[in-house]
Amino acid sequence: MDARAGAVEALKTDPEAVSIRRSLEVYYGDPAREAAMDAFYARFVRRGDLVFDIGAHVGDRVGSFRRLGARVIAVEPQPSCTRALRSIYSGDGEVIVVEAVCGAEAGRVSFNVNSANPTISTASPHFIRAADGAAGWEGERWDARIDVASRTLDELIGEYGVPAFVKIDVEGYEDEVLAGLARPLPALSFEFTTIERALAQRCLRRLTALGFQAFNLALGDTMALACPQWMAAPRMAAYLRSLPYEVNSGDVYCLSRMRHPR
């Protein structure tokens, strides 16, 4: 067992990590899932690249980016998750953990914690309202609130450099993350949900204004692009509007002219 796997196993039995135990069990220890993830992200990430993981949670994507040879800035506001990230990637100088929300402005924000399901904790009150009473979201409760730091993408770029790829998965706060970016990047992804379709449309408009030109998507956690051809923003907007509610979520992948996927 390598050091990272050992750290994950230790966290699974750590009473202080009980809230994220299910995430650790789901996201670590499946070689087939890790191989599929690595093959998927190899389209966007090359050895020596800098990658931002915005909403890193317990770091399964961080692991993939590291296996591909990238340096990673892992941004995550939940203390239970940042403790896990620092434990799993301790001694790895190519991973920097930033305990913060990424948003439109630097400062402090109120962050809503779902204690029973931390993976959907969020800084977005709109997301919580959208989930209230929605099919498939029954019983979800955001039962705690913490005050956390907020950093912008532009601020992170100024401190750490220009990333080749940015993964954004922040439960309905994606448009706020993009509001803190003032330049195109080679590639990024943002999560969408069918309970908040308008948010994805706002993200597409923002990305188009920044100069992103080609879009694709992956549904759920499939690690596969859903469309054989990359498309312009208007077609992607229509595609997202046409998705059945049951799709629930996925990720939109966005390219500028600075790099094309392999």
Automatic annotation (TrEMBL):
Keyword Methyltransferase attached: yes
A Pfam family this chain is assigned to: Methyltransf_21
Domain Methyltransferase FkbM: 53-193
UniProt xrefs under InterPro entries: FkbM_mtfrase (IPR006342), SAM-dependent_MTase (IPR052514), SAM-dependent_MTases_sf (IPR029063)
GO biological process assignments: methylation
Top-level lineage group: Bacteria
MF (Gene Ontology): methyltransferase activity
Protein name: Methyltransferase, FkbM family
Species, as recorded: Micromonospora avicenniae
Lineage, broadest ranks: Bacteria, Bacillati, Actinomycetota, Actinomycetes, Micromonosporales
